[in-house]
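Q: I'm writing up a methods section and want to include an example of the input and output format. Could you take the sequence below and give the corresponding predicted structure tokens, formatted cleanly so I can copy it straight into the document?
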Amino acid sequence: MKILVMPKPIAGVSREEMMQHAPAEIQAVWELYKQGVVREFYTRANEAGRVVLMFESASVEAATDALATLPFAQLHLIDFDIIPLAPFFGLEHLSISKS
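A: Here is the clean output for your methods example:
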């Protein structure tokens, strides 16, 4: 299952506090990448410094468990919007000629 993960800072957490733990966070994300959990990562073009992750996971629960291993999550510095994705079949309903 593909899962879009959008980390979001928790109100009141300073950038300085997050930067203190950034090396450990980066290493932990890299470990999840090597395990095949994190498949892609991006920077948001509309919000500099914000990251978006694409997970490949058996379930939302498994992705949530993996996210809980990240230092930022363990230190309650960030939260996540976790969005499971599915194939889009809506094109079948458009007026496409069927043979």
